[in-house]
Specification:
Strand content: 5-15%
Number of strands: 3
Order of helices and strands: HHHEEHHHEHHHHHHHHH
Shape: globular
Oligomer: single chain
Radius of gyration: 22 Å
Strand order of the largest sheet: 2-1-3
Largest sheet: 3 strands, mixed
Helix content: 55-70%
Structural class: mainly alpha
Distance between the termini: 27 Å
């Protein structure tokens, strides 16, 4: 009998655990039973994604406004994202339902860094903060000053930082990572024609890089915390 009572959690622990479960949503019922919205992405050769509205609203503040507050969108259950790239948006869709690629911290190809930077910028526009955190985690997991990206790849990252990520009083974490890495590669970049053109196109870029180059003790910016916040609770924890 004593063994049985020892195995039982204290009342406070049970109450605390039940309260925590109550604050989360059951994925299969709260998200997958919600109304389906058509998300039309792209201008030419657009693609239409059929997605659960509650899942969209839980992950994107911008789409939540359309799902919950837009009269036209609510009545038609149709949201237009003509300015976005359907290929990139597909990564966001994968993240919504399973997030396997972003959950794997390894970066297999140099081009993945460019994709991740553009996905982070997509998350900025969608106001999808957890999605941004997941892309930042994968981007930084393998990046170091010893990472050997081709010159064009570094320039592509710099272009994303300058064009797609807004300047803030507090430096955006991905911009900080990109500028830090580019600074570590300045010696070879200075001989690359496209890099020199970028400096001409974006007046502040040279300033950002010079500030960092002048600080010889600057280390890599802080990486996201490990592990990332849990998005969904396991189905098994819910009492039926």
């Amino acid at each position: 009998m004593m063994a049985d009572s020892a195995d039982k959690p204290a009342p406070e622990e049970t109450k605390s655990a039940d309260a925590a479960i109550g604050k989360s949503k059951k994925f299969s019922e709260s998200f997958l039973t919600s109304p389906i919205f058509s998300i039309v992405v792209g201008e030419e050769n657009s693609k239409t994604f059929l997605l659960h509205s509650e899942l969209l609203a839980s992950e994107s503040d911008r789409l939540a406004k359309d799902v919950n507050g837009g009269f036209d969108e609510q009545s038609s259950r149709r949201i237009l994202l003509h300015e976005e790239d359907s290929g990139l948006f597909g990564y966001f869709v994968e993240y919504l339902y399973r997030s396997e690629w972003l959950a794997d911290k390894s970066v297999e190809r140099d081009s993945d860094y460019i994709i991740l930077a553009r996905l982070y910028a997509l998350g900025e526009r969608l106001q999808a903060h957890q999605f941004q955190l997941a892309t930042l985690r994968k981007f930084t997991s393998s990046l170091s000053s010893q990472t050997s990206l081709p010159d064009q790849g570094v320039c592509d990252l710099l272009e994303v930082a300058c064009v797609e990520l807004p300047e803030r009083i507090n430096e955006d974490p991905l911009r900080a990572q990109i500028f830090w890495y580019a600074t570590s590669q300045l010696t070879r970049l200075q001989n690359y024609d496209y890099f020199l053109r970028l400096l001409g196109m974006h007046e502040d870029l040279g300033k950002y890089l010079c500030i960092r180059a002048g600080n010889s003790s600057a280390s890599q910016p802080k990486r996201p915390p490990e592990p990332l916040p849990e998005r969904f609770r396991p189905e098994s924890i819910y009492h039926t």
